[in-house]
């Protein structure tokens, strides 16, 4: 009995392999739980009730109101500048009610009144020029041409997005890599146990032949 127990004792290398496997299993599970609670669940809620539609520009305008943004000019240099508010009103193929277009969900959360937030420059005039360039783009280059937009009737029925921050590829990677980590950990543990079991059986067969 003591010999059998001793035979199944793991070597230092096998013990390290088992620890690595269990560590990967724990890391995969914790990653899945963390992403599910902190990121994946809110992302799926944003996508719930949403879909794509064809959008057509109705009006492009600048409001008189200006908004503040924060620029960085070095490691310890930060400041505040201002930019004009550009609004792009569109009509979707799902509804006849005009909707306000936004770049993506992040821009919508940052400034729900405007359709575009320029890269923040120290000079207010540069920010205004960037907004004016975007205004000309929507008026002259896009015009009345239809384009794909995204909406969420439950969360923001009066707003549409030009692109999604949380698309299918991002969601897939958030689920895939923790799962791969978990499966690799399981594989290491199983292979280590199987290799040890085969080694013990081979040793037992060898001893029987010598008897």
From TrEMBL:
Q: How does it sit in the membrane?
A: Multi-pass membrane protein
Q: Which residues cross the membrane?
A: 20-42, 175-199
- Tell me which GO cellular component terms the UniProt record holds: voltage-gated potassium channel complex
| Ranges in coiled-coil conformation | none
Among its keywords, does the record have Transcription?
Answer: no
Its localization reads: Membrane
Gene Ontology biological process terms, A to Z: detection of calcium ion
Q: Name one GO molecular function term.
A: potassium channel regulator activity
Q: What is this protein called?
A: KCMB4 protein
The lineage's top-level taxon is Eukaryota
Recorded name of the encoding gene: Kcnmb4
Keyword terms:
Glycoprotein, Ion channel, Ion transport, Membrane, Transmembrane, Transmembrane helix, Transport
User: What residue range is the signal peptide?
Assistant: none
Question: One Pfam match, by short name?
Answer: CaKB
């Amino acid at each position: 009995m003591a010999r059998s127990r001793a035979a199944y004792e793991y070597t230092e290398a096998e013990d390290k392999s088992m620890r690595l496997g269990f560590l990967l299993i724990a890391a995969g599970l914790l990653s899945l739980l963390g992403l599910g609670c902190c990121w994946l669940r809110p992302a799926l809620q944003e996508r719930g009730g949403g879909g794509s539609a064809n959008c057509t520009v109705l009006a492009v305008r600048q409001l008189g109101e200006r908004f503040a943004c924060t620029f960085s000019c070095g490691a310890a240099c930060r400041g505040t500048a201002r930019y004009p508010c550009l609004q792009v009103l569109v009509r979707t193929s799902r509804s006849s009610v005009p909707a306000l277009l936004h770049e993506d969900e992040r821009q919508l959360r940052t400034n729900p009144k405007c359709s575009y937030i320029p890269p923040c420059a120290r000079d207010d005039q540069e920010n205004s020029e960037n907004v004016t360039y975007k205004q000309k783009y929507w008026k002259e280059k896009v015009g009345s041409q239809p384009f794909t937009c995204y909406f969420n009737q439950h969360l923001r029925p009066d707003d549409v997005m030009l692109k999604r921050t949380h698309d299918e590829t991002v969601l897939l990677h958030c689920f895939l890599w923790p799962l791969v980590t978990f499966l690799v950990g399981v594989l290491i543990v199983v292979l280590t146990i199987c290799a040890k079991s085969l080694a013990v059986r081979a040793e037992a067969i060898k001893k029987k032949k010598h008897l």
